[in-house]
Amino acid sequence: QVQLVESGGGSAQAGGSLRLSCAASGSIFNLYSMGWYSQAPGKQRELVAVIFSGGNTNYADSVKGRFTISRDNAKSTVYLQMNSLKAEDTAVYYCNLRVGWAQIGYDYWGQGTQVTVSS
Hints:
58% strand; 11 strands; 0% helix
């Protein structure tokens, strides 16, 4: 069983920075990607950033140039560096780990960490 433990959420002023971490443990076979999703109140969960097993990354348009996703393979940890934060970044952020392939796979989720940005 795979477990994801997130840390690093909290409060920040607009223009500030936060760094989220997600440590994976357990038996991970056929890793496809790790990433971060956000869910604001009353909204659907949406992709923020993803890093694929080969190292490629994708970002939501709203965070391009401000957020950076990275991975430490030795620690099985993925990070999300969040700079130039905006009030609209306020949400619960969930770590995601996907095994398998793009069309057929299984998703593991962290418990979520709150990010609150005040303007």
